[in-house]
């Protein structure tokens, strides 16, 4: 079973049971963002989490094995077209040099890791229109000199 | 005076005075992220803010006018090469479909605005290595049907 | 049932019944443009509209569910080749800076939303050759400063 | 004098006099959109209009000659990055197939001309946020068979 | 039946009967170039021509319907690789600015339509090697000012 | 003197004298298309033609030398954006496979040369709108087998 | 039978019989390079050669017909990745301007045809490592002036 | 002095003296192809050859130093547009898989080096049109297994 | 059996037996890196190694034949997206000019072969986090002059 | 002084003094690879190292400041063309999936850091041709789950 088949089964089961990533994350004690990324095949799950997810959904071992597999992370569109995803590309373009200035001012020469990294999505209610709050948290890695 | 010349003057002055975006933002009552993006030419400043920034730095009217100008936001690299900026591109690639799933589950069909949008960068101290915390806050815009 | 299968069924049924988007839109009280975009899988339909469309066409629940699904908007051609679609790309290229000048002069620094957005297509009869009139209507979103 | 120099002079003069495209168009009896596109160098002006524009702004013959010149229309970014312009690219991507369906249903097999073409931009006031209204008007050109 | 299936059937039937586009065009009173483009799926045929073609080849109604359908004109290669087709791309590159100069000198600011357009291919016998003569005939469309 | 400088001088002189490519070609006994391509730097001129052109325009030896130089033919835009030139790209895309079918049916397996090649542009007057007639004439080159 | 199926059958048969292009070319009186290119589907074979090849390999008429078909020459990778093929791309890049200088010095303004063209590959034994010798032979085509 | 300046001086001097690469190569005992590539800046010359070239042309030490410098080999066009150079790109595309088949059949799994590599260009006179003969000679490098 | 099928069988068998490339390499006396690359289809195996691998895994002749086949090395992503692989692309970008400087200083004008090449991956234990050590070893190839 | 000017000064001084990166690294107690990358502007130097380098070369404070500046790492060529650099791109393409397999087998799901990273280049003498040995050493970063 490859990651694509795994995702199809999980997404179908989730829909049939009327579950949300939010609810699943809460019940399983996992972040909904990480959980979704693992179920969409963009992160590998450690064995005990893979087991917990499949037991929760009533799915069998094959799915757990597929969840555990280390994914090859591939995306086809150099510039993403879906408007929701494009906006994050736009933020990287518009604010990239700003992020570089501000992060390196605070931390020195280096980067924010996208591997030793977590992310959360929250809803901030607002009478003028609710707001999406995305919080990214990555380890700072300084460049070496040697 | 165009945006590039404006940025050169501001960045030079800032360096000569040993200022940081953090310190400037605090003194001026502006977010360091927004302030940096305006000074780098990727956001226009409302007149009173443009005035405050140039007075603070002892720069003249031309710079304020350039800060006010509505920028044309251009980036040359479809895929950014600087490692710090690339990591944000990588996050958009790896986590794009996850963000779509989780945001649309919470808010319905629509997007997070990158225009009605604010962002902050914080440092989270950690004995295993400090962490960069980037918080994005954008208005949710639902798709229309008509 | 995915969006592609949904589109195939709807388009086939529409052709068999000799319907047009115009006629369908009129009978259903929906804009023909929005209706076509939803049936082509590029917009999600709210449940009551999805139901109305499928009942009108005598199609079953699966199609309604597929109409409701939030689409991932993907197009394959960075530069579209079909001459009708290319002309809109050409307009964005030739008139993009003009639209920026004129819109930002009228509204200030910001953009026209493509999400909080509607569009209509009309025919203007003309003895020298009929004319296509496309009316786009998008909410103005001002940039924030913070 | 090339188109770039012409644009620089016109834009500077316009700013010094505190003019807008709206005001200039009204005074000169020209559409502000067409006027801006000619002054930005993306359309050529017929001699009498070139003369009228330069007399209005108090500019000399060279500028009129440059306005008359037939432009070579070039844009550098296959996918535009400025958010305002990108949204029109996004509309061409998301709604391209829909426009094809609806236009060809109304007019037969053919295209909307981007040459025999006019465009207007209007502001529609709205308590929930003003709206940008862009009206495109292009001659329908049917494909030949021979 | 889609355009691809239609093309397969027509091309196979044509080969079995030992026909050429030349011969078919002559018998049917159609240009061989247009006829080939319609049968290859890059032009739609008006009903009476679709009928004439299918009757001539002894094919049934489905094929006629497919010939009538308005095609979405798609090509995959931004730069064509087949040497015969590439040479036309090369001509557009090498002679593009020349065509612009000469056409606009003769006609004013505007373009040659590729929609209101016909094309013929002839053989010019020559003892030093026969020559291909391609004649393109497109309506001149002047740019509007408004 | 390089080709760009040569073109600037020739084009300026031509404009000052109110000449056209048509008139120049007639007076010099050269095709206006070839003449324009040589003056724009996309074809080299044999010495006697280079001399004739410069004498006609009253230009000196340097220009003749530059006209003689064998050009390196470069174009920057993989897909041309100017609408007049794009239409020829579109023709290559839409009609490429058709040209392949019809040419190879008439001549066998091979190509139309773009080197042993001439081209003319004519105006065909038409009450419904004048028409541009472009005639390409290239030697047929059959593929070898060995 | 299309060219791909034809290639699969020929390559399989060749492998089963332990043949080489060298041996086949020698037995059939054809160049191994041309023979391989025809069998890989990148050149069409004249009927008598197509017949000779299929008889030699004991294959039937369909394969001969497929060998005769005029190929559409397509390659997918703008920059080839296979190291052997990339080296020829690298040679075109590194030595392209040199080839232009040297060929045009020897022959005048024009090109080496890749159509009226033959190529051979030889092995030159060398104690320091054998060497590949590729000999390309193309007709010189001078540019026309008209 | 950088490579570009070096090339400009050498090419100018060569033209003033009415020299050819052929003649220079003969006089200097170097291949005209290698000599041209070194003078165009795409190969570095060993000190004694750099000295010989500059003495022959009466140029000073700086030019010799520039000839010696190890070049960074850069070309801007992924697909070359000049017709002479494009034909070599076309050969790599059309005959790439054939070259792979034939070379690897003769030599085993490996490549022809483009570094341990020489090339000659010859003219083969032919009453039907002279022919360009390009001979490439590269060391065969077998893949390692370890 | 093609390389893809071969890889699927080998990877499945390896997983079922709980083997690692490390263990297999040790048992077979082959480098784990080379072994993995051959089994992934990016290197051909000499017959005795192909035999040893398949016997070790209990696979049949077809797999050995597929291992022996000379691979066409193809990768689809011009810029790789998987974060582990991207980092090597980033190293080539960031350190490419540095590697050129340092290697050519040590060896003269030439390159490191990627064909006459071996590579090893080691683990260096470190209390602050283990380190990956990749050792590349390629023959230096000097440029020729001729 | 920007990084480019800094590099020009350092490289010129280094050449005038007949220094090598090797010698400089040895004298300064720095890795020649890191030293070259800092002097080429692709790494920032800590103040004491910047000071040591400039004192060693007899350069002034501006150069030291430029060495300290945090670089924006930019490369223009998506696929590098210089043969020495291309070979590293080729290694990333050919061996990328192999490196992923072997590294993740040894370390678990994660990547080798290109930031917490060092690299050395050595010469391995060999009678059959000296060999380049490149040793990369990067911290392993495991993916988080949260």
TrEMBL record, chains A, B, C, D, E, F, G, H, I, J:
GO molecular function, one term: DNA binding
UniProt keyword annotations, A-Z: Lyase
EC number: 4.2.1.104
Catalytic residues in the record: 87, 90, 113
Reactions accelerated catalytically: cyanate + hydrogencarbonate + 3 H(+) = NH4(+) + 2 CO2
Stored SMART domains: Cyanate_lyase (SM01116)
Domain Cyanate lyase C-terminal: 74-146
Top EC class of this enzyme: lyase
PANTHER family the record matches: CYANATE HYDRATASE
Described function: Catalyzes the reaction of cyanate with bicarbonate to produce ammonia and carbon dioxide.
HAMAP family: Cyanate_hydrat (MF_00535)
Family: Belongs to the cyanase family.
Listed name of the protein: Cyanate hydratase
Record organism: Alloalcanivorax xenomutans
